[in-house]
Amino acid sequence: MSNLRPDLKSPVTSCRKYDEQSSKDGHKTWKRHPELYMPDGTMVLCAQDVVFRVYPGLLAKHSDVFNGMTSLSDHLPSVVETYDGQPLVRLPDKAEDLAHFLEATMGINHFQANKPTKFTAAAAVLRLSSKYMVSQLRQQAIEHFRRIIPKDFHEIGKKQTNATVFGDDAPHPFELITLFRECQLMSFLPWAFYHACKEAGFQKLVEGDSRDGKPIRLSDDDQRVALLAWKALRVSVQEIRCDTILSCAPDCKGGCGDSVRLEWLKAGFYGSRSDALNQWGMFKLLATSRDDRARSLTTTGNNQDLSKIQPCSLCSKSWLKKELEARQAVWACLPSFFELPPWQLLVQD
Known about the structure:
Layout: H1 11-14, H2 20-27, E1 31-37, E2 43-47, E3 50-54, H3 56-62, H4 64-71, E4 82-83, E5 86-91, H5 95-105, H6 119-131, H7 135-148, H8 153-158, H9 162-166, H10 173-182, H11 189-207, E6 209-211, E7 214-216, H12 220-245, H13 258-270, H14 284-287, H15 313-332, H16 334-337, H17 343-346
Parallel strand pairs: 1-3, 2-5
Antiparallel strand pairs: 2-3, 4-5, 6-7
């Protein structure tokens, strides 16, 4: 994974000269973090309206950025902003994110890749360990996401929603793209983009969405990529269905003629979507023909039940084989849908 250079103001700028009275007036609205305001800490960090009193030496031990801050302490202006008698550094991060990061960095919460962790906490640790260059913690966060995100063709076909991957704390698909872009985790982007196209849909890709009352949207460039990919994935779904249905098993005796194929084609194009990697897709009934639960999956929007119109057993097997091969072909070139390098280069990242 790439080493990231954080986009931070220098510590000299953060610990700037200030108007003492205005600064004190502003401090009145701040809140001390209940667990991360250490009585014997010698540096105060402020994020939004929350202050954290920390041990700069401990942070410097793990973070190249905080190490730079402390090493420059001898060169600070004679008058700097302070809080509670300690140098104050203002950070542009969210207070909740900074809390998760400090807990992990200072050993209060031992973040581990194989430990169940809510998305909000894992994302904060990944984002800030990348930004503040805490390499060991960043690697643990990367391994956490690598462990839970579908890694291959078979997994991505089964895990069809963010909820099946992240549970109740599932993020918005746009959040995943933004996070992985920001932290330069290119190998996670094909899956993130695919799920954004599939779950958000055309309208939200164009207009944006909201979460907890706040608007959320992709960057202009990622929006362009996602919209082009959404269109290409829909075309792929139609091609998979069409090529599969029009195929015929070599030993077919003609029991499933044009009328059967026509009805399946009508159903296939009526409900065309962008989930080109969905295991079996509209052909699930053929793979689980004795399972009544599959019947509802093959009922199209015009109330046509394909369980009553099935090809012969030979063509059913042939269709499933052809559909699988077609999905594998889409998987092989999936990164190209999102203007990313091929899989063999992404997995080396």
